[in-house]
Amino acid sequence: MSSIPSGPGRRSQFVLGPGFIGSDAWQRFDLDQSLRLSAHPDLSVHQARGDDCRLTLLGYALDWSRPDASDSDIVEHLSRVSSSFDKCVEATSDLGGRWILIYQDNNGSKIFHDAAGLRQICFSAEQSGGKIWCASQPGLLAEVAGLSPDADALGFIDQMQEQDEEYWWPGDRQPYEGTQALIPNHYLDLDSKTHKRYWPIGERQSLSYEEVCLRVSRKLEGSMLAANRRFDLALGLSAGWDSRMLLAASRQIRNDIAVYTGIAPGMGSDHMDVVVPTRLMKRLDMRHDIVQQAPHVAPEFLYYFNSHTWRPHPRFATAMQAEFQQYGQSKVAVVGNVSEVGKLPYRNVHSGTGPVDGQLLAICAGMAEHKFAIQAFDSWLAGVPRDSGYEVLDIFYWEQRLGRWFAANCIDFDIGWQDVCAPFNVRSLLIDLLACDEKYRGRQHSQLYLDVIRNLWPDALSEPINPKPRPGIRKRLCRLGKRYLG
């Protein structure tokens, strides 16, 4: 198999603005109201017109309650039930996938994305006479809108890159002047060039433990069925909670889905994230692919990786090369990310007492020494409602850690995979998780997750989750000596 992907660069990306861009191979859609959409040929685009609106869907959407529904079915249904923009947003609550939706009616145009914002929207209204440009990543946005670098932003990200392999942007910040990223749970008005929050609305609901178990089980299983109807799937399996839940939700499709475990350079075959999945797959009589990453990236692949997006994360290059060589972009990667929203994130840093401010959030994010980040988080925090009953740290993880960190990672992953599927990325499912009493969903041990796995596929628990590694021989001999010597 070839060591580099083929076809036009910047795969699965888009640009929305006053004019078309890209090579002749890119798809072009005239959306009226001075909006032109240019989309890479690998990015799915579906449109529908209802009595009250026109909708354009970028990417793919999944409906857990209707696993057989296609993207066309989903966008057609949305166009029929969306008598207003608010109704449209409400109608997407049960949708998973990785998508962007452009809503247009007689009052103008608005754009928003999936629950965790995994298909990025970067935008600028400072160029072209005030007309707005949107794009999938900042480098592409800078090219089409003629943007100038932001010296403060670049200084920040240079320092972050030195201290954190998975560096990410705080708040809605970007590396170019006059640009922003759209945060999850917000929409962008393409006419007024303003972004507004649409969730949370009202107060946090509380559900019984049993009801949450049932809802989460049904939605995860339905999401996996829906994804399997569309794609060839590959589930990355470790010894952890999230991938085990997704394996349990795959019981009905276990003969279709590929299961793999990646081995990074320096990661021994005795690592629990290798040993546990290998034993479990044998017990369940399922095929298990071991994807060994090379210690170095081929120059051709590295060039393609680096030109795909603005400053990609080098630590993902070896994994993307190995996974591309294993599956050749023929499969959609199933990942357990987004689940963390329900597991009391950052409570090890903040117990829930005392004020939450930009400084505390910067500590949580590993950016405590950066004034740039503290200011960005303070700005984000000013727009978070304090009377909803939701914990600020939960919303912070949802909108910042996922909407900024993981969303940027997903663009890196587009090099190795056909696409990325995070089955937890359903707004109603995340709301269900947050409606559960906190005592059932701790970070290290989650009774809720354990019972969801039992509901879906008890045999998936035939191997332990995150077992403690056995102590080395020297430690075991010392313990024996202490036992006998007293």
Looking at this protein, list some descriptive labels.
alpha+beta; 15 helices; 36% helix; disordered C terminus
Which range does the strand content fall in? 15-25%
Radius of gyration: 23 Å
The largest sheet, given as strand count, sense and whether it forms a barrel, is: 6 strands, antiparallel
Continuous helix count: 15
How are the strands ordered across the major sheet? Answer: 2-3-1-9-8-10
How many strands appear in the DSSP assignment?
Answer: 17
Describe this structure in words.
With 486 residues, the chain is α+β, with helices and mostly antiparallel strands. It is built from 15 helices and 17 strands. It has helices at 71-81, 85-91, 138-145, 151-163, 209-230, 241-248, 272-283, 299-308, 317-327, 358-364, 371-381, 392-413, 427-434, 447-456, 473-485; strands at 14-17, 27-30, 36-39, 45-49, 54-63, 95-105, 108-113, 122-124, 133-135, 179-181, 186-189, 194-197, 233-236, 258-263, 289-292, 332-334, 419-421. A six-stranded antiparallel sheet has the order 2-3-1-9-8-10, with helices on one face. It has a six-stranded antiparallel sheet with strand order 4-5-6-7-11-12. The termini are far apart. Residues 476-486 have low confidence and may be disordered.
